[in-house]
């Protein structure tokens, strides 16, 4: 029998691919394709289909609306329908389920998945059709006096029961059939007359027989019905689900002589219920358990650990540099990578572990029945190795790492929320320690977290109560000794802890999102100060303001900076920003466009702390930087390390080739100053040349003519 599959998709490429998939299924399957949902509905008014394959997103109507209109027709009530969608939101799938969708496929669809789902649904549909045809063949018209039809010997009630599309049977106390209707007999490919007097064991598998006998015994012993249970029956390798009821079969003396069983086919409804449940408990993109299901399984794990004394662990895994892939390759590439990571995690775990996706590029893993911490260490090392293997994303090889935080169960906590929090602290510790590693939670991390929570609250107050202020450290031309710049440095006069520098609070500012407001305050304050000094007749050298990479996420940095420059009438070239290598790695086209806009408006751009991160010559070449600042860790070793001197000299040559000036940070003595001049550095800053100055000290420094720094270096 030829199965006709109707495919509806407004994109020609998809239609060709899906039609090819159908052809690959074999000659007993055919595809009829439509670009238009309206045309497909019109065609289906007069033609039949055995399976619908419908794209969700179409211009005339979406897939849910198409299925709803089709289901409204009598002929389309039971035909299976698969929705294909690239969307991952639950609302899309719920609306399709409500409209009558039978199954879903996630785009892009593989041939194997397409074939397996289609054949399964076609098999179920064909079986249901065969059962209906069997009933039709057994249907008898009640004979009249003049119709010339021989009586069948069955009463009206018997004929109704026999032709109803519901499983109905009666068995005696020994489990032998007293009666079964044609629907149930056809389900197992037999005639009713063949089975009457025979035990149910002839047509049911052992596990189903066992359940049936157990239920029957309860009724025979108690005389009480068993309503509303589900049972699965397999007919010719097709599994169907029935909603069943059992009740005692009574004789005229009200004695139980057997069991009456009825069952309604709920296969399609059951799928919809299971799919709704799956949607509620699983991640749409990867198919892994979501945070809700993770919490449920963690509660079971915690209870098991407390009852048995066995150990377990929660691993919180966050991918390193995933944002770079999303920004440079696009979200579709990022999604492909996340699915591959999920497959690797699932493949790396045995029956004692399971993985979940809890959001973004963050995964959780629960490992149970741990014998020792060494076993856990080995498992984490294996996970990092497997995640670090190359991925193929759109035909391009991609590398990525991960940071893992570990909380032990029940040693570190006895609730899923608390364990997630502690594992999260450990994961951030792993990231700050260099990434691509794992770290166990310790009480010290909790103490730091509590301190940081207090710092965050105090920071919010600091912004509102003028506790923040700026100091300015001079930058000196190595050749002339002239002051050629100032770096604006943020300070916080804490009401209890006193004067704080960024090292004491900047991480909290970044993690909490306050860095956006703080960054805007710094830019505004620096511009106001430049303007105020100009009003006094004091022209400061260019002032550089540090900008966190996260500030580019929270606001349109270029617009904020240029607005302040215009508001305070800052002359061209008098303001610069300092960015770090992290922004070089994680920059996208939008960030690059903002930097280009600033540069074209006369704002200088310095790359700060160069050499301490994952330097990229490609990004360095493409970004419009004007200065390269060598990190002070190299400067501190320049007197005793020929390797560091060579690195500094190489960086200087590179910067000059890219038309950048080179600034050395952290210069503390005359010997360093001389070696930096010999290495080709253009500018320097540090305690030798000037400590950070308050506003009044800055006024004194620049009141007078052409101030210089005098050093003893030749």
UniProtKB/TrEMBL annotation:
Gene3D superfamilies for the chain: 3.30.70.270, 3.40.50.2300, EAL domain, PAS domain
Residues bearing the modification 4-aspartylphosphate: 55
Q: Which CDD domains match?
A: EAL, GGDEF, PAS
Q: Decide whether keyword Phosphoprotein is in the record.
A: yes
Tell me the ranges covered by the GGDEF domain, including all copies.
310-443
Boundaries of every PAS domain copy: 153-223
Domain Response regulatory, chain residue ranges per copy: 4-122
Q: Which residues form the EAL domain?
A: 452-706
> Matching InterPro entries, A to Z?
Biofilm_reg_signaling, CheY-like_superfamily, EAL_dom, EAL_sf, GGDEF_dom, Nucleotide_cyclase, PAS, PAS-like_dom_sf
Q: Which GO terms describe its biological process?
A: phosphorelay signal transduction system
Span-the-membrane segments of this chain are none
Task: Give UniProt keywords alphabetically.
Answer: Phosphoprotein
What is the designated name of this protein?
A: EAL domain-containing protein
């Amino acid at each position: 029998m030829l199965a006709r599959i109707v495919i509806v998709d407004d994109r020609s490429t998809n239609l060709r691919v899906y039609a090819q998939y159908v052809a690959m299924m074999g000659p007993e399957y055919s595809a009829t394709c439509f670009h238009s949902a309206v045309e497909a509905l019109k065609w289906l008014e007069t033609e039949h289909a055995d399976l619908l394959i419908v794209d969700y997103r179409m211009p005339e109507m979406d897939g849910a609306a198409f299925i709803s209109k089709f289901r409204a027709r009598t002929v389309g009530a039971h035909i299976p329908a698969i929705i294909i969608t690239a969307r991952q939101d639950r609302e899309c799938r719920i609306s399709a389920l409500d409209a009558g969708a039978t199954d879903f496929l996630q785009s892009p669809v593989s041939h194997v998945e397409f074939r397996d789902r289609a054949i399964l649904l076609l098999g179920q549909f064909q079986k249901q059709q065969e059962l209906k045809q069997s009933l039709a063949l057994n249907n008898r018209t009640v004979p009249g006096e003049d119709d010339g039809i021989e009586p069948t010997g069955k009463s009206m009630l018997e004929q109704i029961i026999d032709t109803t599309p519901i499983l109905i049977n009666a068995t005696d106390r020994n489990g032998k059939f007293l009666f079964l209707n044609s629907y149930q007999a056809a389900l197992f490919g037999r005639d009713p007359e063949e089975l009457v007097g025979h035990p149910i064991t002839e047509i049911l598998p052992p596990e189903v027989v066992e359940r049936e006998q157990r239920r029957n015994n309860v009724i025979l012993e108690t005389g009480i019905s068993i309503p509303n249970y589900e049972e699965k029956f397999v007919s010719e390798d097709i599994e169907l689900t029935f909603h069943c009821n059992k009740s005692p079969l009574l004789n005229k003396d009200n004695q139980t002589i057997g069991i009456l069983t009825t069952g309604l086919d709920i296969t399609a409804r059951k799928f919809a219920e299971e799919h709704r449940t799956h949607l509620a408990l699983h991640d749409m993109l990867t198919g892994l358990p979501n945070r809700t299901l993770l919490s449920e399984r963690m509660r079971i794990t915690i209870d098991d650990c407390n009852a048995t004394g066995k150990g377990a662990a929660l691993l919180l895994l966050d991918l390193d540099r995933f944002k770079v892939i999303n920004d440079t390759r696009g979200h579709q590439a990022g999604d492909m990578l996340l699915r591959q990571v999920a497959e690797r995690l699932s493949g790396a775990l045995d029956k004692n572990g399971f993985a979940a996706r809890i959001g973004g590029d963050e995964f959780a893993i629960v490992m149970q029945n741990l014998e020792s911490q060494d076993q856990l260490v080995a498992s984490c090392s294996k996970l990092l190795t497997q995640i670090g293997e190359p991925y193929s994303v759109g035909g391009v090889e991609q590398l990525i790492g991960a940071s893992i935080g570990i909380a032990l169960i029940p040693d570190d906590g006895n609730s899923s929320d608390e364990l997630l929090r502690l594992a999260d602290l450990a994961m951030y510790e792993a990231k700050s320690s260099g990434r691509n590693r794992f770290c166990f939670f310790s009480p010290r991390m909790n103490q730091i977290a509590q301190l940081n929570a207090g710092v965050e609250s105090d920071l919010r107050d600091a912004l509102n109560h003028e506790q923040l202020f700026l100091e300015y450290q001079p930058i000196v031309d190595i050749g002339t000794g002239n002051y050629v710049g100032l770096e604006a440095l943020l300070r916080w006069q804490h009401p209890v802890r006193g004067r704080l520098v960024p090292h004491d609070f900047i991480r909290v500012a970044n993690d909490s999102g306050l860095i956006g407001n703080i960054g805007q305050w710094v830019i505004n304050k620096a511009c106001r100060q430049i303007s105020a000094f100009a009003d006094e007749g004091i022209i400061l050298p260019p002032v550089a303001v540090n900008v966190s990479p996260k500030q580019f996420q929270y606001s349109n940095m270029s617009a904020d900076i240029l607005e302040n420059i215009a508001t305070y009438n800052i002359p061209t070239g008098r303001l610069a920003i300092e960015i770090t290598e992290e922004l070089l790695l994680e920059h996208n086209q939008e960030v690059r466009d903002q930097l280009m806009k600033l540069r074209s408006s006369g704002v200088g751009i310095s790359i700060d702390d160069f050499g301490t991160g994952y330097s990229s010559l490609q990004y360095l070449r493409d970004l419009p930087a004007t200065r390269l600042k060598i990190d002070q860790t190299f400067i501190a070793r320049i007197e005793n390390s020929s390797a560091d001197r060579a690195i500094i000299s190489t960086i200087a040559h590179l910067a000059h080739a890219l038309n950048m000036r080179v600034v050395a940070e952290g210069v503390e003595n005359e010997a360093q100053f001389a070696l930096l001049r010999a290495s080709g550095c253009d500018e320097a800053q540090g305690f030798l040349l000037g400590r950070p100055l308050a506003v009044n000290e800055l006024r004194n420094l620049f009141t007078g003519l052409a101030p210089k720094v005098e050093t003893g270096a030749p």
